[in-house]
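During the reporting period the student researcher (J.K.) took over the structure-prediction task from the postdoctoral fellow and processed the backlog of single-chain submissions. One of the processed entries is reproduced below for the supervisory committee.
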Amino acid sequence: MIRIGILGDISSGKSFIARKFGYPVFNADNEVSKLYKNNKKIFTKLKRKLPKYISSYPINKKEITNAILGNKNNLKKIIDIVHNEVQKKLKSFIKKNRYKKIVILDIPLLLENKINKKKDILVFVDSKKKDIKKQLLKRKNYDPKLFKIFKKIQLHPKYKKRKSNFIIKNNFTRKNVNESIKKILNEI
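J.K. obtained the following structure tokens:
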């Protein structure tokens, strides 16, 4: 099985590109959302660690946002609780898809959390800052303060770009992306 890790800046189009490969995708952000909605154990742990912020089940994303904005240490507490469960989901995904030729890993903190393996093929999604800003402003829950906090825990995009085997210039047009993906798949 070939594992392809998708890297890039926040809102650079990683998930869009991950889906365009046409292979099974592990989307960490979606898994976190599912955990907030469906995992009572996560709720209990978060409520215990952050009683001032977490009060309702299923967990409301607004409560998570308020906890992160309320105290810079809260993000680490959330990550510590949620990360283990996401890791379990990833293992299950890999096991389920073990006979697939390729799987796509859409994990924003792939390098930061050392989830990648040496043999993984890393693809960096390179987008212009103005395009990223446009994408961010389209998000209904965009908060510039939250964005800055998340940027701080991520490795610099230039570092991720250097670590990558391939770079896809994402100008948010399907044609360009499809051609780039076809080229990458032909090379691997």
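The committee noted the following: The longest strand covers residues 2-8.
J.K. will present the remaining backlog at the next meeting.
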